[in-house]
Design brief:
This protein is α/β, with parallel strands linked by helices. The protein contains 28 helices and 14 strands.
């Protein structure tokens, strides 16, 4: 069943529709009155009272006005009501709208207590009567246009028009309460990307070819772009064929067979009445389960226009489907979206939009949201570029915060104590991230393919040697979010789950250009094993999948390991930067001690050279300093060497190492 155009909402149509409904109720009332008179004549003289007309305004149409199709006529055409079934519906509507018609029903029944229509009354009073109108598969009952209000039996049961249908006939915009919370309307949205406009046009053309030929194919919208963009494409396609769009989450579809059948029937009727298409959204990371299976059955059974939106293509076995991949807008489309969202402000940014497009991979919805956030920022008037950058960062946080730990980057270059060679590599990493737009786009390297364009770094070294601090320094330098991924929550024993978890992280990070920090990378990125069974084969697939995503990731991915030799050599070849964090020598340890206490901390008599005798990495040095500060604060004293000695003994005990006299000689 193909849907019709949405109902007219103008005042002229309302007047014409009400006039038509008045006339139809009056016609059926006359038929009922004639039946009552015949019945009265058979039983004895009786003159029934002339009931008043239905209490609805019926102004005449303006001279020369073209009358659009009334709601009753459209409903009868769409749902294929016979003339008799149409009259039954009008009879039930008239009883609700005109109390005097109920009295006429009682007289026609010959029973004052039966002031309601019944099938038996309709069969006797209305022309063209046929018993099939009573069938559960007939339009009246299949589409739940009327309800059997009591248990008197099929022919004698009171008939009542469904409330949603009554409002439709009266021309009152409304929706079925039983679909509330399950189906929501979708407002039209701007569709800026040319690739997305093309998909909408192709979907609309596909449906147009199927008019009058049965159910159209399901249109699947799948791919990396987000839910908002898929909704916009579906809404644009609907607008091209005169439909409105409603959305249903797969999680909201009832799993019970009877409930699912009821939802399908209610939606098909709603789609017919409102001229709507349905968009069923499968969550990007939704696991298979009863609700998703039920949603798939719903998509296969609904006969009208249906979209499916998902991250991956869904298999539909019982209905033809046509799939369109919805990709993120390319760089040119994103620039155009930024210009549209910012208006005249875009011209004053002096090339900063190119940097935003290079670093952040936002869809049209995300670009509009970021532009709105920046406009609301008090600092946006003076520092629009900075405000836009921060707004772009925030777009991916909602998704990434559920997948990884966001680290607030407070460390600066002066806090990082490393040999100059390692510091220079870190500066090179920052330069690659900053200049990716110039090299990849303006200089053409990106046009040779996406493989190998991902910026990745391996930080290798013992615990406490500054790997995480170095990542924080880069994040602060580049003004990007830093997320630490706990690999223990990523790696799964179930086949395919590890890749799925990694995909969720990379997809979310792509939008915000975040820096990803994979701690203890050897847990996943170790040497690929010889394939002895299926588990080995899938473990190697996980490593290969990660290599693929690392090579195409637009942002910076940092891996840390305590044991570089444990990593797969094939993996190491694909890492752009490798930074070795060696255990600090005495000179570096002295430099760390000189920086470890904040300027507001009171200190007295500290000797960095003597403190550097402690054979500790930078992380342990910070721990000793922090513990000593608490000891001094509790004693009401500045931090002295004596406090540091107590803290050092505690730290060595934790590390299960002996604190030698040579390390603390001359402290106190």
């Amino acid at each position: 069943m193909m849907m019709t155009a949405p109902r007219h909402a103008d005042a002229d149509w309302q007047q014409a529709n009400q006039a038509h409904l008045v006339a139809e109720v009056a016609r059926v009332r006359q038929l009922l009155r004639q039946h009552a008179e015949r019945r009265a004549g058979e039983e004895g003289p009786h003159t029934p009272a002339d009931p008043p007309r239905i209490d609805l305004p019926a102004p005449a149409a303006p001279p020369g006005a073209q009358s659009p199709t009334p709601a009753l006529t459209r409903l009868a055409t769409i749902l294929r009501l016979s003339p008799f079934e149409r009259d039954v519906l009008v009879l039930c509507a008239g009883v609700e709208l005109d109390g005097a018609l109920a009295a006429l029903c009682a007289k026609a029944h010959g029973d004052d207590a039966r002031s309601y229509p019944t099938f038996s009354l309709a069969l006797a009073a209305l022309p063209g009567a046929h018993w099939s109108a009573l069938s559960p598969t007939g339009p009246l009952r299949r589409w739940k246009l009327i309800e059997l209000a009591d248990g008197r039996g099929l022919a004698a049961a009171a008939l009542r028009i469904d409330e949603r249908v009554l409002h439709f006939l009266a021309g009152v915009p409304t929706a079925d309460d039983r679909l509330a919370g399950v189906v929501e309307p979708v407002a039209p949205a701007s569709l800026g990307a040319a690739s997305h406009q093309a998909i909408a046009a192709r979907a609309a053309a596909l449906w147009t070819r199927f008019v009058g030929q049965g159910p159209p194919p399901v249109v699947q919208l799948w791919g990396a772009d987000g839910t908002a963009e898929k909704r916009a494409i579906a809404a644009a396609a609907c607008a091209r064929v005169g439909l409105t769009l409603h959305v249903m989450s797969a999680d909201a579809v009832p799993a019970a067979v009877a409930d699912l059948a009821a939802i399908v029937r209610l939606w098909e009727r709603e789609a017919a009445l409102s001229g709507s298409a349905l968009l069923v959204e499968f969550g990007d990371d939704a696991p298979d389960g009863p609700h998703l299976a039920a949603a798939t059955r719903l998509v296969e059974r609904v006969r009208g226009a249906v979209f499916v939106a998902a991250r991956e293509r869904r298999r539909l076995g019982l209905r033809h489907a046509v799939a369109f991949e919805v990709l993120k807008p390319d760089a040119a489309e994103q620039r155009a979206a930024w210009h549209e969202a910012l208006g005249p402000t875009a011209e004053r940014l002096n090339g900063q939009l190119d940097v935003l497009v290079s670093q952040f991979n936002l869809g049209a919805h995300g670009i509009r949201a970021a532009a709105a956030d920046a406009a609301a920022d008090p600092a946006g008037a003076e520092e629009t570029g900075r405000a836009l950058w921060d707004a772009c960062r925030s777009q991916a946080r909602a998704r990434l915060d559920d997948l990884a730990q966001r680290i607030t980057s407070a460390a600066a270059w002066d806090d990082l104590v490393l040999p100059e060679a390692q510091r220079q590599i870190l500066r090179d990493v920052a330069a690659h991230v900053r200049q990716r737009a110039t090299v990849y786009e303006r200089w053409g390297f990106g046009r040779q393919g996406t493989r190998g364009l991902g910026i990745s770094a391996l930080f290798a070294g013992a615990s406490g040697t500054g790997k995480t601090m170095a990542a924080e320094v880069l994040a602060r330098e580049l003004r990007l979010d830093l997320y630490r991924i706990d690999l223990s929550s990523v790696v799964s024993k179930y086949i395919g789950e590890t890749e799925k978890n990694l995909r969720r992280i990379f997809d979310a990070a792509e939008e915000g250009g975040a820096i990803l920090l994979f701690d203890e990378a050897d847990a996943l990125f170790g040497k690929r094993s010889e394939v002895k069974d299926s588990h080995d084969r899938y473990a190697n697939i996980e490593v290969s999948y990660l290599l693929q995503r690392m090579e195409s990731y637009r942002g910076l991915a940092i891996l840390t390991t305590n044991l570089k030799s444990a990593l797969d050599t094939a993996f190491l070849r694909r890492i752009r930067f490798i930074v070795q964090f060696a255990f600090p020598d005495a000179a570096l340890r002295a430099a760390i001690w000189q920086r470890v206490f904040p300027c507001d901390t009171p200190v007295e008599g500290l000797d960095a050279e003597r403190l550097a005798q402690l054979n500790l990495a930078g992380g342990n040095i910070r721990s000793v300093a922090l513990n000593a500060a608490f000891l001094a604060a509790d004693a009401g004293e500045p931090v002295r060497m004596s406090h540091l000695l107590r803290a050092a003994r505690s730290e060595y005990a934790k590390l299960e190492k002996p604190l030698t006299d040579a390390e603390t000689a001359g402290w106190v």
